[in-house]
Each structure stands twice: as C-alpha cells, then as structure tokens.
C-alpha cells in the first residue's frame, strides 16, 4: 500500500464522518475525559459515553470530582482511541453542560454496550435508582486519526 492510499488531501490519515460515526457508535471504547480542576490542572477520568452523531452524553456520580469540575468550568477535552493496531483515535475539545443533576433516565443500552447483555442488564437493574449527573458535551473541534502514517508536519 502506498502512502497516498491512506492519506487524505491534507496528508493526514484521518477518518471520514461515516468512519468516525461507526467507530464512536459501534464500539465499547472508553472516553478519557479531561476536565479542569480548581487549580487549573487537567483531571482525566475514563467514562462510558453515548454519541448521537452530534453531541456526546456522559453520566457520572454526582459527587465525582470530574462532575464538580464541569460545574465550575465547562471546558473539556477527551480522547476515544484504540490500544491495538491499527490505531484509531478521536480527540475532541468542547463544552459540557449538566442537563440533569439527578438523572434517572434509561441508560441500560450503555451498560449492555460496555459490560455485555447479561452483566450490563444486572448492573443497570442494581443501580438504576441511583441518581447521576447527565452531561452533554458539544464538540467545538474534532480531530480524527486512523493510522498508519504521519502527518507531513511531523516529517523531518
């Protein structure tokens, strides 16, 4: 395979919108969510997510540090990636809004996605009465990468 076979016009081996949607919706990759702590340091936490093609939703325990960080500063960034080749990643910078701080919505499909049908259903049933903070993340920038390859700016 030649280099041109996987590079797009700008030389970056990135995903198309359809590839990105499939990667984000069709997998159980964790979101590594970065929020800003009160002293300005990044605070990174792995979380389950849901993606509707435009925005991301995450749900966290209301006393979680990262939820408090979002309450204080809505700026977030995150990475969703693979750890095995061929490597893929989606990196997002955006703003987060707590839509409901006592959410009891239907998130069973999240549990099934991440834990499998039986374990996911059991976990959902055992914890569905525990309120969570439902957070919507609206992307401002999205960068995708589907290796192999380097962006030309990294070549020497």
Commentary on this structure:
With 156 residues, this protein is α+β, with helices and mostly antiparallel strands. The chain has one domain (3-102, 132-146): Electron Transport, Fmn-binding Protein, Chain A (Pnp Oxidase, Chain A, Roll), CATH 2.30.110.10. The protein is built from 4 helices and 7 strands; from the N terminus they run H-E-E-E-E-H-E-E-H-H-E. Strands 2-1-5-6-7-4-3 form a 7-stranded antiparallel sheet. Strand 5 and strand 6 (88-103) form a beta hairpin. Helix 3 packs across helix 4 (117-127). The radius of gyration is 17 Å and the shape is globular. It starts with 16 loop residues before the first helix and ends in a 10-residue tail after the last strand.
What tags apply to this protein structure?
7-stranded antiparallel β-sheet, alpha+beta, 156 residues
Per the CATH scheme, the topology name is Pnp Oxidase, Chain A
Helicity level, as a percent range? 10-25%
User: Please, how many helices?
Assistant: 4
Tell me about the largest β-sheet. Answer: 7 strands, antiparallel
* Rg: 17 Å
**Low-confidence runs of at least 5 consecutive residues:** 1-10
* CATH class descriptor name: Mainly Beta
Assign the structural class, choosing from mainly alpha, mainly beta, alpha/beta, alpha+beta, or little secondary structure.
Answer: alpha+beta
What percentage of the residues does DSSP assign to strands (E)?
35-45%
Q: Whole-number average pLDDT?
A: 89
Return the string of H and E elements: HEEEEHEEHHE
CATH arch. level architecture:
Roll
Shape: globular
Number of strands: 7
Strand order of the largest sheet: 2-1-5-6-7-4-3
Q: For the terminal residues, how far apart are their CA atoms?
A: 22 Å
Number of domains: 1
CATH superfamily: Electron Transport, Fmn-binding Protein, Chain A
